[in-house]
Structures are given as structure tokens and as C-alpha cells.
Amino acid sequence: MAAVWILWGSVYLAIRLVVDEVDPFQAMAQRYVVAGALLAAIAVVRRGRSALRVTRAELGGLLVTGILLLGFGNGFQALAQVQGLPSGVAALIVATVPAWAVVIRLVVGDRPPKATLIGVAIGFLGLAALVGLGQRTGEALPLLGAAFCLAASISWTVGSFLQGRLRVPEDIVAVAAYQQLVAAGTSTTLAIATREQFGTDFSPRGWMAMAWLVLACSVAAYLAFAWLLSNVSLSLTATHAYVNPVVAVLLGAVVLSEQVGVGVLVGGGAVVGAVVLIIGSERRTAATRQIPENVAPG
What we know:
The protein is an all-alpha fold. The protein has helices at residues 2-9, 11-19, 24-47, 56-82, 87-94, 97-107, 114-136, 143-163, 172-193, 204-231, 234-237, 240-256, 262-284.
């Protein structure tokens, strides 16, 4: 469990180090094409070539979720950090995904329990405090970056919601492989559309960050997550949703000297508390299937 906490908690820092040197969408394309190929190879080694066989319906589900979860989700999150959004704050904004999932449930006519709705209210108040308190205390966040990150979290939410309703393969490693290859194509398209300069002119630190994104955050973390789903209770597995942003804030402060001011402490604390409340409430009411607990930055 600690491996998932650390690996997915570190993805925001690694993305920041990479996009400090190259354009965001082409960086994500490079990450996903290598990671997707590695995961596909691992899926074949584990279960044979049949692991990668998909039906037309499953392929459609993989295309939709790959675009929304990783192509747009992590792509916009990387773009947000290019705008100057601190990596720890990006993690806290993405942590609002369970709250947005409840909003979708309300839209489709599902009525969550009161505790869940209270958690949603706390989460959105925390998000407002995260941005608003920073503006008032001299720790102003780049609003465009925050908007891109918010778009990323909504894309993650919609993708997670649809993944529970579209047909995808049962093997999570094969699913991750296909989704990352789809995301590579999506990111390449976005890079071309925004006229990014393709290249691999990384410093040693940039190469290390890219290698960490591919091998640790994409490959190792998904393998660890697949093992957890089969061997550990869902309630324990779900803890990554509120531990990851804490890890991200700590890493951003230690490695990048990102400021942890009043806005981050108050707003971020409220967001994490809201996620704990939402997931706990949904688990108690046996409605966890509606909340994307398996959502991660990937």
C-alpha cells in the first residue's frame, strides 16, 4: 500500500520536473507510448497474448476512458503546472474527483446519503479556500493553471464514471496498457494542435523524472494497484485517494521549495477531509461502486 501512496503521490512532482524542460503534451505522449508498450508486454507475459484481445465494445470503452482519464486528465494537469501551478496544489485540486463524482450521481438522479453531500460541500469550500485564501494572503495561485487542473479533475471524474458503465477488459494491466497507448495518441494530437516542439532535450534531472514517470508512476504503480485489488480490502486500497495529495504537497515543499501557506493548509486540509468523509460514507452505505475510488493520477 505504501508503494502506491508514494508512487502516485510523486507523479505531480515528476510531471513538474519534466514540463519544466519540454512542452507538456509531447512529454505525456513520450511517457505513455513507452509505458503502454511495457505494460502490454507485461500483460502478455502474465497471461499470454489472449490478455490483449478485446472486443469491439471493449475497444470503444478503452478509447473513451483512455482519452478522458489520461489524455485529457493528466494532459491538462501537466498544462496546469506549465502555467505555474505548484505540484502540491495540483494534487489537492485533483483530489476533488470523488466530490465531482457525487455531482454526476445527482445529475443522473441518484441520491447520495447526507454525509456524502456534507463531504461534497466541504470539498468545494476547501477548493474555494485553496484558491481564494491564496489570493488574499499573498500566495496567489495562477488562475489559468487552476482552471486547467480543475478541467483535468472533471475529465478524470467523467472518465471514471463511464468506465464503470462501458465494457473494458477484466485484466487491469491490459486496461492500463491500452489506455496509456490511447493517451499517447491523444497527447500527440494535442501537441500537434498546439504547435508544440517535439524533442528529448532533457537534462539529467529531466531524464530521471521521465524515467520515474514511466517505470515507477505508470508501470510499477499499476502493477502494485492490480495486486492490491486482488489481495487487500477495497477500503484500504481507497486510502490512496487522500494520502496521495499529502505526499505530493510534502514532496513539492521538500524538493521544489513550494510554499505551504494558509491557503494550502486550510483549503487542502478541507479537501482531504472531504475525501475521507465521502469515501467513508459511501463505503458504509454499500455504494462504493459509484465513487471512483480507483482513480489515480496514473
